[in-house]
Design a protein that fits this description.
Blueprint (H helix, E strand, L loop, with lengths): L3 H13 L6 H4 L19 H11 L28 H8 L9 H14 L17 E4 L2 H17 L15 H11 L15 E4 L4 H9 L3 E4 L3 H4 L13 H11 L6 E4 L12 H14 L3 E4 L3 H11 L8 H10 L3 E5 L10 E5 L4 H5 L3 H12 L10 H14 L2 H20 L12 E5 H5 L9 H12 L4 E3 L1 H4 L1 E2 L4 E2 L7 E5 L7 H16 L7 E5 L11 E4 L1
Parallel strand pairs: 2-3, 4-5, 5-6
Antiparallel strand pairs: 1-7, 6-7, 8-12, 9-12, 10-11, 13-14
Helix pairs in contact: 3-19, 4-16, 5-16, 6-8, 6-15, 10-11, 12-13, 17-21
The structure holds pyridoxal-5'-phosphate.
C-alpha cells in the first residue's frame, strides 16, 4: 500500500502546477518581507489629495507628493525596487576609497558572470584608453556622455547636412525621418541641420532627448505586429527588419550605430526575440554598422525568450542573457531597473567589437568625460556602497524564481484589468501594464483634449499614481495644434516596481481604473496652463480640468 505521505505529496505537487488555475494561491512568494513601511496617509483622504493635485501639482503626476499616495505608486519601475537583505548587507561592506575601490574589481567580475565572457578584460586594460565598463549615476547620464562623445567623433566624418534623403527609402520610413529632421525641440536651433540618424525599435524619452540634444536624429522602427496591435504576437518589441535594411541600404553613411531597447519600454514593455536580435546583428554586420543595446530590462527580456521563443524553454536565464549580449558591440543600462538598485547606470563597450573598431579613440574620450562629469572611472557616479548593491542586484535579477514571480504578477494585474473590460496592450509586458487610451476613450475623444492626463489626475484622487506615455509625452505642439507621435502611441503606463507590492495592492488600483472606465464619459479634457512648448514637457507641465 502506498505511504499516506506519497498520496499527499502528489496532491501538493499538483496544486503547485503553474498551469493549474489555483496554483498561485498554493505557491508562496519565493521571498519574505524583511522590512515594511507604514503609509503616512489614508485611502480616505480624497479631499486632501484633490487639494494637492490642483494647487500644488497642476494635475501632473510627476509633481504630486509621493508621501500622499496611499495606494500603488506606479509612476515608474525605475529606482523604485525594494532591495534585498543581501544587497543591504553587501552595501555595508562598500569600499569608499577615492580610487580603485574593491567594488570596482568585483563589478568587473560580475559583468562577466552576468553578461558573458566576451565582456571580460585583462587587468592591464582597466582604466585608461581601453576601459570597457563606465559607471554613471543613472541611465540618462550614460546617454548624455555617450552621445556627446559620439557627436564629437561624427564631426570628424564627412557629412553633407543639406543632402536630401534617398527616394529609394521605404516611403513611410522616409516621411518619419523627415518629420524628425524638421523638428528642433525646445526651439533649439543647431548651426547645421541634423545629418546622422540613430535608429532603434523605440527610443525611451530621455534617450530620444539626449540624441536630439546632440543634433542627431532618433528614429523608431517598431515591428509591424506592434503597430497592428497583434495580441497573439509574443515579441511586439521587435524591430522592423525591412525598414532597418532599407535605411542601411540607402543611407548607410548617416547611421553611426543601430540601437535596440530590451525590453521595449516605450512600445509597451514588450520583449524582443533572440531571432530578431540575431537578424539585426546580421544586417548590421552586412553594412558594417555597430550594434548597441539599451539594456535596462535585459533579464525580463531573457525570461520572455525562455518562456515564449522556440528552442529556449530548457535554457537557463543566464545562458540566454549571454547569447543576447554576445551579439552586441556595446550597451548602456540604467541599473535602476534590472540592476535592482535605486540609483546607478553604466555604459559597456566590447574590446573586440565593431564599435571599438569604428571609433578607436572613443573609450579614451569617454573616460575623460567621465572623470570630468562623474568621477574616477573606478567609481564613476556612484558611492562604493552603491556598487556593492549593483553587484548583488545583478546576481539576484537572473534568478528564475525572481523573474517568475515578477513577470507573472504583472500578467495577473493585466488579466484583472482585461476582466474589467479595460483595453490594455496585450500580451502584457515585463515591467508594466499599458492602457490604450485610444480604445479607452473611443473615437470621439479629440487629441487636443489630452484626456489621458485627466484620467491620471482623477486616478491620483483615488490614491494611485500612473503616468501618461503617449500624445503629451511623445507628441509636440506646433504652435496651433498637437502633433501626435509617429508611429502613433497613446498609452497610460502602470509601471510595477520590483519586489514592492503584493497582488492585493495592484488589484486595488485595478478597481479604481474600472470605476473611471465605467464613468469615462464624465472624464473631461485638460487645458495646458504651462509648458506646452518645453522639451521633455511632460515632466514639468501644469494642467487644469476643462
Ligand atoms: C529604456 C530606458 N532607457 C533609458 C532610461 C533612462 O534611465 P534613468 O531613468 O536611469 O536615467 C529608462 C528609464 O526609465 C528606460 O526605461
Amino acid at each position: 500500500m502506498p505511504d499516506v505521505t506519497d498520496f499527499f505529496i502528489e496532491k501538493f505537487h499538483k496544486n503547485l502546477d503553474l498551469e493549474h488555475e489555483l496554483s498561485r494561491y498554493y505557491s508562496p512568494r519565493p521571498y519574505r518581507n524583511a522590512v515594511v513601511r507604514f503609509r503616512s496617509c489614508s485611502i480616505h483622504d480624497f479631499e486632501a489629495r484633490r487639494e494637492i493635485l490642483i494647487r500644488e501639482a497642476g494635475l501632473n503626476p510627476f509633481l504630486f507628493r509621493a508621501d500622499m499616495i496611499p495606494g500603488c505608486d506606479l509612476l515608474s519601475d525605475s529606482g523604485t525596487t525594494t532591495m534585498t537583505m543581501e544587497q543591504w548587507s553587501a552595501m555595508l561592506l562598500g569600499d569608499e576609497a577615492y580610487g580603485s575601490n574593491a567594488g570596482y574589481f568585483e563589478l568587473k567580475e560580475q559583468v562577466i558572470l552576468t553578461f558573458g565572457p566576451s565582456w571580460g578584460q585583462d587587468k592591464s586594460l582597466f582604466v585608461g584608453e581601453n576601459e570597457n565598463v563606465f559607471i554613471f549615476h543613472q541611465g540618462r547620464a550614460c546617454e548624455n556622455a555617450f552621445f556627446t562623445i559620439l557627436s564629437r567623433e561624427l564631426r570628424k566624418r564627412k557629412s553633407d547636412s543639406k543632402r536630401k534623403l534617398s527616394n529609394e527609402l521605404l516611403p513611410a520610413l522616409k516621411a518619419r525621418i523627415e518629420t524628425k529632421m524638421g523638428f528642433h525641440p525646445g526651439g533649439h536651433v543647431a548651426s547645421e541641420p541634423p545629418f546622422f540618424i540613430i535608429p532603434s525599435n523605440s527610443h525611451f524619452d530621455t534617450t530620444e532627448g539626449n540624441i536630439e540634444d546632440k543634433n542627431l536624429i532618433p528614429v523608431n522602427l517598431p515591428c509591424r505586429e506592434h503597430i497592428e496591435k497583434r495580441e497573439d504576437f509574443p515579441f511586439r518589441g521587435n524591430m522592423d527588419l525591412e525598414e532597418l535594411e532599407s535605411l542601411l541600404e540607402h543611407e548607410r553613411d548617416r547611421v553611426p550605430l543601430v540601437y535596440l531597447t530590451v525590453t521595449n519600454n516605450t512600445g509597451g514593455g514588450q520583449p524582443v526575440s533572440l531571432a530578431n536580435i540575431g537578424k539585426i546583428r546580421e544586417i548590421t554586420k552586412k553594412y558594417g554598422v555597430p550594434f548597441f543595446l539599451d539594456a535596462c530590462r535585459f533579464a525580463e527580456n531573457a525570461w520572455f525568450i525562455q518562456q515564449k521563443e522556440d528552442g529556449y524553454r530548457d535554457r537557463a536565464i543566464r545562458e540566454i542573457v549571454h547569447e543576447m549580449f554576445g551579439h552586441a558591440d556595446g550597451f548602456h543600462i540604467s541599473l535602476k531597473k534590472d540592476g535592482l538598485v535605486n540609483i546607478g547606470g553604466a555604459v559597456l563597450i566590447k574590446d573586440d567589437g565593431d564599435f571599438t573598431r569604428a571609433y578607436p579613440r572613443f573609450r579614451g574620450e569617454l573616460t575623460d568625460y567621465q572623470i570630468m562629469t562623474e568621477g574616477h572611472p573606478t567609481y564613476g557616479g556612484l558611492a562604493g556602497r552603491d556598487l556593492m548593491g549593483v553587484i548583488e542586484g545583478l546576481r539576484t535579477v537572473t534568478r528564475q524564481e525572481y523573474l517568475d514571480i515578477r513577470i507573472r504578477q504583472i500578467e495577473r494585474f493585466g488579466e484583472r484589468l482585461v476582466k474589467h473590460g479595460i483595453p490594455i496592450v496585450l500580451p502584457t509586458g515585463g515591467n508594466a501594464v499599458y492602457i490604450d487610451m485610444d480604445r479607452f476613450f473611443g473615437d470621439t475623444a479629440r487629441d487636443e483634449d489630452l484626456k489621458a492626463i485627466a484620467f491620471t489626475a482623477l486616478l491620483l484622487i483615488a490614491g494611485h499614481r500612473l503616468c501618461e506615455l503617449g500624445l503629451y509625452s511623445f507628441g509636440r505642439y506646433d504652435g496651433s495644434k498637437e502633433i501626435p507621435p509617429d508611429p502613433r502611441l497613446n498609452y497610460v503606463r502602470a509601471a510595477v516596481p520590483r519586489l514592492l507590492y503584493e497582488e492585493r495592492d495592484l488589484f486595488s488600483t485595478a478597481e479604481a481604473i474600472k470605476l473611471l472606465y465605467d464613468n469615462r464619459e464624465r472624464i473631461p479634457g485638460v487645458n495646458v496652463d504651462y509648458g506646452r512648448n518645453l522639451k521633455l514637457r511632460h515632466f514639468k507641465s501644469r494642467f487644469s480640468f476643462k
